[in-house]
Design brief:
Number of domains: 2
Radius of gyration: 21 Å
Distance between the termini: 21 Å
Structural class: mainly beta
Order of helices and strands: EEEEEEEEEEEEEEEEEE
Strand content: over 45%
Oligomer: single chain
């Protein structure tokens, strides 16, 4: 369980308490935050130190945090209200108060239903409930990595014009960076794509930066000639892609390995 210290300086509370001067920890402070799915229904929060906040803006630093949320449990340590929903994004909070420290899942990204005895909270992550199973992943501070890559598209035919492509539902709105892997989903096909967050900025895949020109499987099952890409994103739930050639490129695929989102 976590231990807590309330930060204050000359009686400051509210917005003043969020300033980093005077020995007061800023509201976004965290040290070695590790959030990871433990099973298809549980998710763990660990942190050396992390600051939580109450509704008046008062800040409290928790240390040696180790908590678990189970979506099959109601209230503190589980789901804040209602029943588990399939194909739904849940947001993970660390909560604290006179009843102790716990993890809490909520449909709300900002205002979970707080159990009695808990006044402080901090959103520390999110998890998509695919069917009735959590998408397995690990968060280290602001970076999230999926246990298995998620398909954005596979076997697609790309023309020379940009087309909007929806991101997998497990990637939340607001992501500011994406880690991806492009490839060809048929042996012998070329991997020639242009990926963009806004149909203007270009991230090109060419034969020079393909990992291998052989037909050996280089990435996710059945994907050949792969290239790993890192791209700044605009927070939208889609990206754009087109062929990096004068003609249509068939059998093109794109997988998402992870994203960045500040908590």
């Amino acid at each position: 369980m976590a231990t807590g210290t309330v930060f204050f300086d000359f009686g400051m509370t509210g917005a003043a308490a969020q300033q980093s001067s005077g020995g007061i920890a800023p509201a976004k402070y965290k040290a070695n935050l590790d959030v990871h799915t433990n099973s298809v229904s549980t998710i763990d929060i660990e942190a050396d130190e992390i600051v939580v906040e109450d509704s008046s803006g008062n800040l409290k630093k928790l240390t040696s945090v180790s908590e678990r949320a189970d979506i099959t449990v109601a209230g503190a340590g589980g789901l804040d209200t209602g029943a588990e929903a399939s194909n739904t994004m849940y947001y993970l909070f660390l909560i604290d108060g006179t009843s102790g420290t716990e993890a809490l899942l909520s449909l709300s990204s900002t205002s979970p239903t707080m159990p009695s005895g808990y006044a402080y909270k901090r959103r520390v992550g999110e998890v998509y409930n695919l069917g009735t199973d959590f998408t397995l992943h690990q968060r280290r501070n602001n970076r999230v990595t999926f246990e298995d890559p998620l398909s954005c598209y596979s076997g697609a035919s790309l023309t020379t014009s940009f087309v909007s492509r929806g991101l997998p539902a497990s990637v939340p709105s607001g992501a500011t960076r994406l880690w991806m892997e492009s490839g060809a989903s048929a042996s012998g096909s070329l991997n020639l794509q242009v990926i963009s967050p806004d149909s203007t900025t270009r991230f090109e895949v060419t034969t020079e930066n393909v990992h291998a020109t052989s037909t050996t499987n280089q990435g996710p099952a059945g994907i050949f000639r792969t290239v790993h890409l890192e791209m700044e994103h605009l927070g939208a739930t889609s990206l754009y892609s087109r062929a990096n050639a004068t003609a249509t490129q068939s059998n093109q695929s794109l997988y998402i390995w992870g994203y960045e989102l500040e908590v």
